[in-house]
Input
Amino acid sequence: MSKTPKDIIRDEIRALAAYHVQDATGMVKLDAMENPYPLPPALAAEVAALVASAPVNRYPDPRSPALKARLREAMQIPAGMDIVLGNGSDELIQMLALAVAKPGATILGVEPSFVMFRMIATFCGLRYTGVPLKPDFSLDTEAVLAAIAKEQPALTFLAYPNNPTGNLFDAAALERIVAAAPGLVVVDEAYTAFASRSFLPQLAVHPHLLIMRTLSKLGLAGLRLGLLAGRPEWTRELEKVRLPYNVNVLTQLVAEKVLSNAAALTAQAQTIVAERARLAASLAETQGVSVYPSDANFILFRVPRAKQVFEALKARRVLVKNLDGSHPLLADCLRVTVGTPQENEAFIGALRQATSGTPP
Ligand SMILES: *Cc1c(COP(=O)(O)O)cnc(C)c1O
Output
């Protein structure tokens, strides 16, 4: 008798729900924190020429030297720190988890936060502890410090700004937590292009700190490129679990080219930040809606009967993220990505109809 998945697949994997991506065909797509703007045409033409002549018959250079140099410059990685590249930051989270997965090891995070921290801990057979944020989504510093003392986590993840809440944690609170953590601490700065502060300078202060960045929210989500910056004694070990060809030839060439024109992307990020303020103001003026402050390219808001509002938006071809039911602190919460001015207007129009009960 051959065995079934029930016999072979680990219980905790069978208990998981697969990461769900919503079908967005024909929708105003404001669910996934993508940059709504394409590459400027001149840059797109340069990229096309590069792709046409790319040596796809050859394996990529596993060290990605040219791309790394560009990234260091674009992200102002301090001298003395090294970087590790991943196929998106998702893969870096997995590499970190794999590397620390001693029997009984724990990953610690706060909740609600990025769901991949918990999911990947489970994939890699680690324990996971999620410390609840306060109802205003700030850090419950004492609770985090108590959990650190009790769990002695091998790895702590903090997203700064946090997803799905959009806020930047208090820098002094973050500092206390990092200082108290016995293991590695990864500050995930996926949204740094839209944020007013970064924790990157603290790399110099804390030997067990790593900063994670990604190009996904900056306009290159489809390329899949993330990076981890920190001291060589850590990056050296992480390099050993990195699959040698994880960053493909096309990603290396295209990311390097786009980063050599980084001003184009930062200009788009500035437009998004300005649009975020307009969108937040429109949301605040919408009957029944309460808006949370954001340092990211999305906005979290609360609205009565969020699930129905989400469906009513979808019926009007506007896709956002429904967070109701995902965590007790997110009851009746929806998350909208900042789009183009036209997309944001379409969203606000649809939202006002949905909350006033106008049929689609
Ligand atoms: C979107 C996001 C990422 C990005 O993941 P990639 O794999 O680089 O696309 C990482 N961390 C957080 C908190 C995010 O919201």
User: Anything to note?
Assistant: Residues 238 and 257 are 26 Å apart (CA to CA).
